[in-house]
Write a structure and sequence with these properties.
Length: about 270
């Protein structure tokens, strides 16, 4: 069947005003910390596109709150790990020598969607230093959320995910699902699992000079995130709110009980 276009799903334009009203109806409140996963195309015909969504989120969360989004750039990686698409082995040395370094203000997101790509370059948005798994933040605690994001354990205790957890933050799905719920990676790090490690590589700036660096990280996976997230919603309905934002299904979840639940769920359900 042909894909339904956004304008065909919308009975009227989706605007900053209507998005803000929908977000408030869902339960997003000013002054909190909100980690957003969003799909622009799911929201309907948005008047102004991605900037309208960012404007609405900022309006609702407010300057006393903090808005966070994953702004990952996984393409800055060792060419032997590139698989979508793979590159010829004869190119590997050139890529390792010539890959531009990660720069928070310049490097685009990859696979994060139009909303996150727009958000990362908004005024007063801060972005963390990790070359593959960065996060961007705006608002009262933006600097603190993205600070000290080291190479090792990129989605673990020293990541913005853990900072959102410490602040009793929420996770907001705008037309997305647990399949891309980055917070569940934090539970993987905390769970008693034999995940093993993998060697990662990227081009970064060190004292102003480009360097190709290597580090070890947990060999994490999101293969069972949908199953884990569904189990959490069944068992903790009080920590979940659902409604429509635009024409998209939207979900607001409390991150801390979700991560705590997932930590135990992974231990019980992974081999």
């Amino acid at each position: 069947m042909p894909e339904t276009l956004p304008e065909e799903r919308s009975s009227e334009p989706v605007t900053v005003h209507s998005l803000a009203a929908d977000l408030r109806e869902l339960g997003v409140e000013p002054g909190g910390t909100t980690l957003v996963h969003g799909s622009l195309s799911s929201l309907g015909w948005v008047c102004g596109g991605a900037p309208a969504v960012v404007d609405a989120l900022q309006r609702v969360v407010g300057e006393d709150g903090t808005l966070v989004m994953p702004t990952h750039s996984p393409g800055n990686r060792d060419p032997s790990d590139m698989s979508a698409p793979p590159v010829p082995e004869s190119w590997h040395d050139t890529i390792r020598k010539r890959m531009p370094p990660y720069r928070p203000a310049v490097t685009p997101t990859q696979g994060m969607g139009a909303i996150a790509e727009c958000f990362r370059s908004y005024p007063d948005v801060e972005r963390s230093a990790h070359p593959q798994h960065s996060f961007a933040a705006w608002g009262a605690n933006a600097d603190a959320v993205v600070a000290d994001h080291g190479l090792d354990h990129s989605l673990g205790e020293d990541s913005p995910l853990a900072d959102v957890y410490d602040r009793d933050g929420d996770v907001l799905f705008l037309g997305t699902t647990h399949a891309t719920n980055t917070s569940l990676h934090l539970a993987e790090y905390r769970a008693d699992l034999d995940l093993g490690t993998s060697t990662c590589q990227s081009a970064v700036l060190v004292d102003g000079d480009r360097e190709w660096v290597e580090w070890e990280d947990v060999d994490f996976t999101d293969a069972d995130f949908s199953e884990c997230g569904s189990a959490f919603e069944r068992e903790h309905p009080d920590a979940v709110a659902t409604s429509a934002v635009g024409v998209a299904d939207a979900t607001l979840l409390e991150q801390r009980p979700m991560v705590d639940f997932a930590e135990e769920w992974f231990e019980e359900n992974r081999g």
